[in-house]
Amino acid sequence: MIVLGIETSCDETGIALYDSKSGILAEALYSQIKLHQQFGGVVPELASRDHIRKTLPLIREVMVQANCKAADIDGVAYTAGPGLAGALLVGASIGRAIGMTWNVPTLGVHHMEGHLLAPLLEADAPTFPFVALLVSGGHTQLVAVQGIGQYQVIGESLDDAAGEAFDKVAKLLGLEYPGGPQIARLAMQGTAARFKFPRPMTNRPGLDFSFSGLKTFVLTTVQEHRVDGLVDPQTKADIAHAFQEAVVATLSIKCKRALQQTAMKTLVIAGGVSANTRLREELGLMAAQQNARLYYPKLQYCTDNGAMIAYAGCQRLLAGQCDDLAFHARPRWSLETLPPLQAVPL
Ligand code: KG4
Ligand code: ZN
Predict the structure, then answer these.
(1) pLDDT tens-digit readout, 142-155
(2) Which atom of ligand 1 is nearest to the CA of 179?
């Protein structure tokens, strides 16, 4: 089965063709980062308008790249949520219109399921069951995964998502959006011994997270170190370093607890923050100590992309799931409400 995947939930237009027999056939990604950078974050209305401009040309591009004709496509998967309502509607409308025109089934995919399953695109893929740490700009969740669509959220952020915390702290330090990669770069110049930031909610039981206090801690530190309104470059790097270490340590402590609590031996990380080298390093060490294995997607599949949507959609379309006549775009949508793969009859 060949599935066209369309991702437009936030600030990336991602398109891909996935073949259940041979994997990804072609993909294209257009990032709106430059558009939003001048505003310090994503402007929803501008995001929707840019998706309108880019989605169809990118679909044409991947069809040409893969040498596919309309008749070769067996289904269309698009991100139906969670995300920005207007941005989701662009992908959903185009996806459904193409499906109707080409007379193939369409399916609205859960964006976080796309992230969660992205590591399965790798040659060395994890097997079920596993604990998944989903860390993106909008979500921080620990999920006990028994199979596709069998998700139990066992921990999540009570306020800011990990990626959001990276973005906000980057802004405090005068770095550009998106902040995660910028903080990671700056942190490499930081000295370890200068600051130690708190590891929120690690000294009490449970698997939930909270990053907003840490962000306030960074703000206070920045204010204390301003001289004539400016923070010197080394102090900024030291703060970036301490912040990244605090987030990484917090995530690692909670992942360790999740592995122990579920008695699972596989940890999967996915979403934009899973691109973070320090996080991968630390979780790799922790997993080894727990006699567990860590899996993550290749870098291009950590952040938003069309491949993960094509892949997740294909698994569900193969099982006979597809859209009904109602039109769905769900800005808020719980992973736990998704049907298991085998539940829908053909
Ligand atoms: O999954 P994603 O592309 O979009 C959402 O679904 O939100 O994640 C984007 C988030 C942003 O907050 C970005 O700052 C963060 O992922 N991010 C990183 C890194 N690369 C992207 N955070 C930390 N380190 C990175 N290397
Ligand atoms: Zn995402």
Answers:
(1) 999 999 999 999 99
(2) 14
